[in-house]
Design a protein that fits this description.
single chain; mainly beta; 13-stranded antiparallel beta sheet; 13 strands; globular
């Protein structure tokens, strides 16, 4: 577990060498910089934190860093202190957004927990709860996975071979599709497009994975 704010303050208070300046500017970019950001491999590797691109509801892309990695969950911090919580690459909770995902049940049975052994037609049932337009919603979600054509992602200059899986989800009379790009070597979800409920969607691209 890492306490991100204290570490960031320490980094930003460092001296004036070129390396320190570069690292400090990258940290500022992570939390204070403009949306629709583009970072370099040098900037990503210069940070001691895992990092990713995040897009919410087809908005502008932002760069976020990993604040905490505990109990199998990764807690990603945005520049305005919004939190996105993931488990096995799936978004399982959000805090501070206009609409928030509150809870996903039965996570131990999520097929993404063992992605390199995912099989065609794998299924999963769980309870979802979320808020939209100030109202609380809950539903039972049922998934079926289908394998799509493999792809190679170019992630800040690194080519990552991925298996691509589509998850068709039915909940509360609605159907949507999530897509996950899974690293063929590590089994990590490196990119995803996920719907969380009622026209609430996120896209993630892992630039620097959390260390296992």
């Amino acid at each position: 577990m890492r306490y991100l704010p204290l570490l960031l303050l320490c980094l930003l208070a460092q001296g004036c060498t070129q390396t320190q300046k570069s690292l400090g500017e990258t940290v500022k970019l992570a939390l204070l910089g403009p949306d629709d950001v583009e970072v370099t491999a040098e900037q990503v590797e210069g940070l001691p934190y895992a990092s990713m691109y995040l897009r919410v509801n087809d908005g502008q892309r932002i760069f976020v860093v990993l604040g905490f990695d505990e109990n199998g969950q990764q807690k990603w911090i945005t520049r305005d202190r919004t939190m996105i919580v993931t488990r096995h690459g799936r978004v399982v909770k959000t805090l501070g957004l206009a609409n928030d995902l509150h809870e996903v049940s039965n996570l131990d049975q999520d097929p993404l927990a063992d992605p390199l052994h995912l099989t065609e037609g794998a299924g999963w049932t769980r309870q979802l709860s979320w808020s939209a337009a100030g109202r609380f919603h809950a539903a039972t979600a049922v998934s079926r996975f289908t394998r799509l054509q493999d792809q190679v992602l170019d992630l800040i200059g690194h080519r990552v071979a991925c298996r691509v899986w589509q998850e068709e989800v039915t909940a509360d009379g609605n159907t949507w599709r999530n897509i996950f790009w899974i690293d063929t070597t590590t089994g990590q979800v490196r990119q995803s497009r996920q719907t969380l409920g009622d026209d609430f969607s996120v896209e993630t691209t892992i630039l620097k994975p959390a260390k296992s």
